[in-house]
Amino acid sequence: MTDQVVTRFAPSPTGFLHIGGARTALFNWLYARGRGGKFLLRIEDTDRERSTPEATEAILKGLAWLGLDHDGEVVSQFAGAARHAEVAHQLLAEGKAYKCFATQDEIAAFREAARAEGRSTLYRSPWRDAEAATHPDAPFVIRIKAPQEGSTVIRDRVQGDVTIRNDQLDDMILLRSDGTPVYMLAVVVDDHDMGVTHVIRGDDHLNNAARQMMIYEAMGWPVPVWAHIPLIHGADGKKLSKRHGALGAEEYQKMGYPAAGMRNYLARLGWSHGDDEFFTDAQAREWFDLGGIGKSPARFDTKKLENLCGQHFAVADDAALLQELQNYLAATGAPALSDEKSSLVSSAMYCLKDRAKTFPQLIEKAGFALADRPIVPDEKSARNLDTVSRCILKELTPHLQDASWTRDELEAVAGRFAEAREIKFGKMAGPLRAALAGQAVTPSVFDMMLVLGRDETLARLQEASAENAGGAEG
User: Fold this and answer.
1) What is the bridge-based pairing of β-strands 173-175 and 141-144?
2) Distance of CA 435 to CAs 248, 378, 420, 463, Å?
3) Any catalytic annotation for residue 242?
4) Omega into 443 within 30° of 0, i.e. cis?
5) Is-contact 435 464, C-beta < 8 A?
6) Each residue of 207-249: pLDDT tens digit?
7) What is the Cα–Cα distance from 93 to 224, expressed in whole angstroms?
8) pTM of the model
9) What is the pLDDT of residues 294-329, one digit of tens each?
10) What tens digit of pLDDT does each residue of 358-373 get?
C-alpha cells in the first residue's frame, strides 16, 4: 500500500443517487482531494436483477451535478467476478476456506432446532474440518474459516474501537454453489486491487467490517482505515426516506439548488469545523478530516440548505452562475436561454443573485430581462397602472429620454421629477415596476433601466403609458 490516500464511492445501481449517498461521495472526495490523493468510483452491479443502466446513469449525472469528479475509469464490480472467485479458490487451496455441502433445508432445520432450544442460530458447518475424501459429488459453497476464539477490533476513525467477539462471526460464504462471488468478498477484493486506503461509508456497514477483515487477514492484505459515518435523518429524527420528500441528487438540481450550496450543506451535515457554517470548496478540501465527523445522525433541514444556497448565490462568479442556470433549465426540460437573453441576464446578475436562494427565485427576479414586449402585468402590478399612474409615466418618459444613462443621472432625473410633481418616489416606483417588468417584486427600477438600456426602457414606458395599456382604472 502506498502513502497516497485513495478513497472510493461504491454505489449500487438500483435507483437514483440518494442524498445520503451523495454525502458519502462528498466526504470521500473531500478527504482525497484535500490530501492530493485519488477518488475512485466503483459501481457495485453484482445484483443483476436490480441493477439497471438507467440507475447507473442517474448516479453519474448526480455526481456530475455536484462536481464530484473521480479519477480513472468507472469500475464495474460485476466485471471482476472471475478475480473475486480466484481469491476464494486461493483461500480454499491454502486451507483458509472450505467446501460446504450443507443444503438450504439442513441449514434451516439447524436454525429451527437452535431457536427451539434457545441456542445461537449462528450456523456452524459440519464440513469445516471434513477430509476431502469424505466430500460428496454434490453442489457446494465455499466458506471462509472464521476465527472462533478471541475478538476482532474494528479501529474506526469515527466510531472509535468497536470490538466483536469472534464466536459471533459465522463462516461467511465466499462463493455460492453456482460459482458466483458474494458481495462481501467482491468488496474486499475490489478495494484491495484498487489500492483503497480509506473506506468512508455509512455506519450501516459497520458490522460488515468485522466480516470483511477476515478476508483481508486471511489474504495477508493491509486493512484499510475505517470511517463509518452516521446516517442522515429527516427533521422528525427518523431515518431519511421517501416520506421526507425529494431524495435523489438530480431532484435537488431540478428544485433549483446550486451545486456549491448543496456541497457546503452536505459537508456540514454530520461534519463540523469549529463554528463555520459557510465555506468555499477550497476551504472544505483544506479543513475536512475524519475527526470532525460526529457519531450522531445528522438531520436534514431544508431551511438551512436554502440559507447556505443564498450565501453561495451572493458570492458566485456571474459566468459560472449563468452556466449553472442553463444546466438547471436543461435538467427541468425548459428551453435554453437565447444568446440575447443570456446577455441580459448576465448583465443583470449583480442585482439578481443577492437575495435568491434557488434558480426559480433567480428566474423570477430576472423576469424583467426575460420578458418580451408587450409587457403584460400580473394582477398585483396591474393595479399600479391606473390612469393617474400612466400619466405620470407619460410625463416622465421625455425627461429620461434626454438623460445620460448612468445610475446617478437616472436617480437624479427621477428625483427632480418627483419633487416638481410633489409626489414621493414610491408613488412612481410601482408603475415603473409594472411597466418595466409586469411584476410588483423586482430589482431596483434603476437597475432594470440600466440592464434593459435606454431604447428598451423607453419603449416599455411608452407602451405602458398608452391609453389602451392594461391595468385597473381609477
Assistant:
1) antiparallel
2) 41, 11, 22, 8
3) yes
4) no
5) yes
6) 999 999 999 999 999 999 999 999 998 888 888 776 666 678 9
7) 25
8) 0.91
9) 999 999 999 999 999 999 999 999 999 999 999 999
10) 999 999 999 999 999 9
For residue 51, what pLDDT band results from cuts at 50, 70 and 90?
confident
Does the CA dihedral 211-215-216-217 come out positive or negative?
Answer: positive
**Per-residue cell: 119:** 441456542
| Listed residue (452, 432, 433, 429) closest to 442, CA to CA | 433
Catalytic residue among 99, 242, 295, 394: 242
pLDDT for res 474: 35
Beta bridge partners of 228: 201
Query: What secondary structure, in 3-state letters, does the chain show?
Result: CCCCCEEEECCCCCCCCEHHHHHHHHHHHHHHHCCCCEEEEEECCCCCCCCCHHHHHHHHHHHHHHCCCCCCCCEECHHHHHHHHHHHHHHHHCCCEEEECCCHHHHHHHHHHHHHHCCCCCCCCCCCCCCHHHCCCCCCEEEECCCCCCEEEEEECCCEEEEEEHHHCCCCEEECCCCCECHHHHHHHHHHHCCCCEEEEEHHHHHHHHHHHHHHHHHCCCCCEEEEECCEECCCCCECCHHHCCCEHHHHHHCCCCHHHHHHHHHHCCECCCCCCCCCHHHHHHHCCHHHECCCCEECCHHHHHHHHHHHHHHCCHHHHHHHHHHHHHHCCCCCCCHHHHHHHHHHHHHHCCCCCCHHHHHHHCHHHHCCCCCCCCHHHHCCCCHHHHHHHHHHHHHHHCCCCCHHHHHHHHHHHHHHHCCCHHHHHHHHHHHHCCCCCCCCHHHHHHHHHHHHHHHHHHHHHCCCCCCCCC
Q: Is 282 exposed, middle or buried (0-12, 13-18, 19+ CB in 10 A)?
A: exposed
- Region of 351 (left: φ > 0; alpha: ψ -120 to 50; beta: rest) is alpha
CA atoms within 13 A on the CB side of 470: 14
State the amino acid at position 209 in one-letter form: A
